[in-house]
Sequence to fold (359 residues):
Amino acid sequence: MNEESFAFYRYPYADEYVVMRQRDGEPCSLESYSDLDGKHGFVFAPFSITGECPLLLLSPDVVEHRPVPADVDFVETPFVSRDIKAERRRYGDDFAKFHSRLSSGAFGKIVLSRRSEERQLSALDVERLFVRACRLYPRMFIALVSTRRGGTWLMSTPEILVESKDGRLHTMSVAGTMEIGAEDTDDSLMERKCASDISEWSRKNIKEQQYVSRYITDCLQGLSFDVSVEGPYTLRAGMVKHLASDFFFSLKPGCNIGDVISTLHPTPAICGMPKAETYDFILANESSKRAYYSGFAGPLNCDEGTHLYVTLRCMEIGDGYCRLYAGGGLLSDSVEENEWLETEAKMETMRRCLAIKRI
Fold:
């Protein structure tokens, strides 16, 4: 699957996608985010840079623009039954460890993630899965990335880490989750709702999103000037919706994209508060390693500028299996069953692309 390195990606609402292929050598493995300064290509970054999961920069030999097909097949693919009871037990054990630190007051918020392994009985066409995701999720950034060292990953993510926009930079505060309800099936109504109405959100969700917004505000003080904020508003993302705010800013002289990434990543939306302590706790205590889940990916200094998205709603595709990843922010008043169901709803984004038929 990884004989050549490639990245397919489509921006939200776009009717075409970009294909980047690197046929000459392997993508560069970089040691730090500052190494991205002055570079261009497609970035694929893990949650935590390690020898096993390096920060990768694909330098394409070929770049193509293709229209998103209007017709996409959703022929069911046979999969074996998943061991949901074992997954639920592991999640319960992790939740207890994580929540104890919230109850003690050591952490204000921490994100707990998990993965679910699906085993298919026939080979998957990864390009077909990418096109399915494009048709299913027009609002999302869709990317399919494949390298020898990083593996093959498909993502459908709503969250911008950092992008260049109209001569300035843009980042987002995204947190809080609710499932899409029956009242949200009309896209035109949902768009109007996304613009302003947050009255439906619980105190827990609003508080969680405020943590992220305050963190980003503090981060930008040392890097930027002329900061403006829009939101919060409701953002639809596949089978769930989130609270979001947009931050637009200009960099101070001497600051670079690597400084922005190093300061922002990982945000409390995927890590926690306080950042250093929750980051270390996650690496030491989460039962499944995140790898490239909750890292970031996207084009860097390409013709269309820089557009780096947090790697959410994603799966790793291997020989005979797909590993789906999801997480959720925990506060002291979080309820285990509710948080488990939230991860299930988030994983449904990728399961719909797989068109699973249980055997």
